[in-house]
Write a structure and sequence with these properties.
Distance between the termini: 45 Å
Strand content: 15-25%
Shape: globular
CATH class of the largest domain: Alpha Beta
CATH superfamily of the largest domain: Mur-like, catalytic domain
CATH topology of the largest domain: UDP-N-acetylmuramoyl-L-alanine:D-glutamate ligase
């Protein structure tokens, strides 16, 4: 019923009028949710993280650091909901849940007397006032690359939506990625105590980065002195995510020793370069990468650590920014040795058309078509890679990561890439 009313409104109302009405409705909905749960976030110490990529990993690094420091922590992320060691998978396919559900979560955090709440703040959630009325003590910016242009229409509009985290919430502490090309833009909006992290010239810097097939090592320059960090999570981008969390924790008064131990204790994260343990002479990794930048970074990190061929099983999401698809195809063609294009989540779009757009990008790279297969059925695509990969190879499956469901032809179907790999390998 509500969906039909919305569709009718979009047909008959002027765009600007509709935007005003939608804004009023969303603010009212968030206000109602706050009132229903007696403004549960009032007086709580809330950390919000925004950016295109890295929000979830940064959130979990920070969660781990704060737990190491002895704090009680509530977390609402793309991958899962947590109160200390109580974990519930996020199977909503949403990073920021609806206003009522979110206030219910925060009320539960309050009932458990948590010291800190960590929330991811997406551009759409900020634009739609889903976080309205929740105080923000610390705001973290990870990076900005192409995503959600189906919704925002332009990178400028996308950036403006992200910047609302500072315009609307006026955090006391702002943590910014000094090496991101959008740093200067966000620096203009940042409020309170402003600190940076990055690869050079930042308040917290990463140096001496080294990685092999089993471990990543780097030095982190903190107020307490330089810490040598050893991680199982690979990729320089994960070192940056760790630095973002470390910078925030440092400004909250956490000691360097707890920061180091907290970062190192995060050994794996569901759907983020998650290794699937199977009895094969090659590695299988599952990752949530679903943007051009995310895919490029993940492929680059894995390629450096692969002795044999790098297999990529991937597709693209329906009802989303269509311009991403050929770009992701080009990236796959440049960095992967074997490519299987398959279905991801079509939602209400023709999956054949989605795959064709990805393949268009692959074909634009000379001779890349020779190393590509199109297998629409995702289960069959994964099985083909598992059956044909050899010793020393890596099979990387991207797009769905931690997700427990996928939406095909408008239907919500139970699905998890890691579990499918395990079943196929039995």
């Amino acid at each position: 019923m509500v969906k039909n009313v919305k569709s009718l409104a979009r047909k008959v109302l002027n765009g600007k009028v509709l935007r005003v009405l939608e804004d009023e409705y969303r603010l009212a909905r968030a206000s109602f949710a706050n009132a229903r749960f007696n403004w549960p976030a009032k007086g709580m110490r809330v950390i919000m993280i925004t950016g295109t990529n890295g929000k979830t990993t940064t959130a979990h690094f920070l969660f781990s650091i704060l737990r190491q420091a002895g704090y009680s922590v509530g977390l609402s992320s793309t991958a899962e909901f947590r109160i200390n060691e109580q974990v519930q998978a996020n199977d909503t396919n949403m990073t920021v849940v609806n206003p009522v559900k979110l206030r219910e979560q925060i009320a539960n955090f309050k009932n458990h007397n948590v010291d800190f709440v960590i929330l991811e703040a997406t551009s759409q959630a900020l634009d739609q006032h889903r976080l309205y009325g929740i105080p923000c003590e610390v705001a973290i910016f990870t990076n900005l690359t192409q995503d959600h242009l189906d919704y925002h229409k332009s990178m400028d509009a996308y950036a403006r939506a992200k910047a609302r985290l500072w315009q609307d919430f006026k955090p006391k502490i702002s943590i910014l990625n000094l090496n991101d090309e959008w740093y200067e833009y966000f620096r203009k909006f940042a409020t309170g105590n402003i600190k940076t992290y990055g690869l050079s010239k930042a308040d917290v810097t990463i140096s001496n980065y080294k990685a092999d097939i089993n471990r990543t090592q780097f030095s982190l320059g903190l107020k307490d002195g330089k810490s040598v960090i050893s991680l199982q999570l690979t990729g320089k981008y994960n070192a940056l995510n760790a630095a973002a969390a470390a910078t925030a924790a440092q400004e909250l008064g956490v000691k360097g020793e707890d920061i180091e131990k907290g970062i190192e204790s995060l050994q794996t994260l569901s759907g983020r370069l998650q290794e699937v343990q199977i009895k094969k002479p090659y590695k299988v990794l599952v990752d949530y990468a679903h943007t051009p930048d995310g895919l490029e970074k993940v492929l680059g990190a894995v390629k450096e650590l692969t002795n044999g061929s790098l297999w990529l099983v991937f597709g693209a999401c329906g009802d989303r920014d269509k311009s991403k698809r050929p770009k992701m195809g080009k990236i796959a063609a440049r960095l992967a040795d074997e490519i299987i294009v398959t279905d991801e989540e079509s939602y209400n779009e023709d999956p054949d058309a989605i795959r064709a757009s990805v393949i268009e990008g692959i074909k634009s790279i000379k001779n890349a078509e020779k190393k590509m297969l199109e297998i629409a059925d995702r289960k069959k695509a994964i099985k083909y890679a598992l059956d044909n990969a050899k010793k020393g190879d890596t099979v990387l499956i991207t797009g769905l990561g931690h997700e427990q469901f996928r939406i095909q032809d408008g239907k919500r179907l139970k699905w998890n890439d890691a579990e499918v790999v395990k079943r196929l390998s039995e």
